[in-house]
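Example 9 (inverse folding). The structure is encoded as follows.
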């Protein structure tokens, strides 16, 4: 049975609906930091945010693909700056945030994309592999998020987008350090969201499924493992990198202001099987 509304209630409801505009997805005037945004999925996130109107600041280790990434972003009419850094260096996160603010004027979005992976059977694991993976995939995410949050809290706005994984939910094979780090990223996302929501800061994570990247090339070349994965993906195929770009724009935009602490799978349905 339909509930009748008064003319005043109908008018108020229409006003609420009219509040939604497609411009909420636009990032004009915004500045995004994308760690490791010069290659791979990170480059895709950086280009997507630039396409939506944001200027981009990229802290990364080494200068690979700087020229190509600069071309991709500048052809969209956006500004891009790079910083050659080691994200595991003590105190580096504050320096990155300070340089981003100095060069770009302000910051609005942080994408914690930089990461690494080491594949070995558990019984052959090396301490250095553990330390290296946890250092870049988890500890650096904590420090970058905290440094950015201090700026965002003062301006009472900001978006932090972490990059999780299917291994934020599962155990995986041959990658205990990566699995631990990505579980940790999910936990950090929730913990930061719980405290920072009061400052109008949204903290969420993207959990990519099986994507065609350099990191996954060895798996795709293994016929048995490749088929095992495909059999679990309802979409029936590995994702192309561009299929991760839309979610990054959404989480960076005003359209996601009431989403906080979410770990969002982009996996073709992998987790439902």
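The amino acid assigned to each position is listed next.
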């Amino acid at each position: 049975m339909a509930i009748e509304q008064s003319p005043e209630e109908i008018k108020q409801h229409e006003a609420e609906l009219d509040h939604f505009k497609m411009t909420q997805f636009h990032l004009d005037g915004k500045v995004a930091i994308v760690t490791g945004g010069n290659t791979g999925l990170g480059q895709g996130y950086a280009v997507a945010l630039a396409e939506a109107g944001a200027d981009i600041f990229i802290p990364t280790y080494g200068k690979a693909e700087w020229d190509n990434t600069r071309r991709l972003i500048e052809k969209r009419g956006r500004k891009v700056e790079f910083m050659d850094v080691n994200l595991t260096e003590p105190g580096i996160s504050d320096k990155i945030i300070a340089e981003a603010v100095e060069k770009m004027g302000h910051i609005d979005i942080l994408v914690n994309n930089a990461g690494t992976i080491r594949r070995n059977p558990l019984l052959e694991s090396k301490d250095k592999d553990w330390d290296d993976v946890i250092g870049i995939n988890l500890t650096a995410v904590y420090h970058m998020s905290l440094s950015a949050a201090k700026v965002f809290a003062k301006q009472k706005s900001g978006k932090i987008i972490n990059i999780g994984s299917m291994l934020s939910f599962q155990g995986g094979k041959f990658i205990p350090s990566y699995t631990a780090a990505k579980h940790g990223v999910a936990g950090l996302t929730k913990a930061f969201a719980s405290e920072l929501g009061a400052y109008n800061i949204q903290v969420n994570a993207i959990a990519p499924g099986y994507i065609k990247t350099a990191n996954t090339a060895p798996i795709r070349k293994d016929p048995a493992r490749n088929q095992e994965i495909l059999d679990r993906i309802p979409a029936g195929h590995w994702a192309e990198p561009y299929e991760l770009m839309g979610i990054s724009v959404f989480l960076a935009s005003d359209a996601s202001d009431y989403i906080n602490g979410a770990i969002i799978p982009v996996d073709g349905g992998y987790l439902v099987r």
